[in-house]
Amino acid sequence: MILVTTAGSMPAVLRFSASFPAKDELIQAVWGGRAVSDDAVTSRINAARRAIGDTGKEQRLIRTVPRRGFRFVGEPHEQATGAEKTSAGAVAIDQLHTGANLRQQITFCRTLDGVRLAVAAAGSGPPLVKAANWLNHLEFDWQSPIWSPLFTHLAARCRLIRYDERGTGLSSRDFPEFSFAAFVHDLETVVDELGLERFALFGVSQEAPISIAYAVRHPERVSGLILFGGFALGWRWRGSPADVAWTETPIALIREGWGRDNPASRQMFTSTIIPEATPEEMRWFNELERVSISPETAMRLLYVLGDIDVTDLLPRVSVPTLVLHSRGDARVPFEYGLRLAQAIPNARFVPLESKNHLILSHEPAFPRFVEEICAFLGEADGDARLTPIDRSVGVRI
Question: Where are the domains of the chain?
Answer without folding.
Answer: 2-100, 104-396
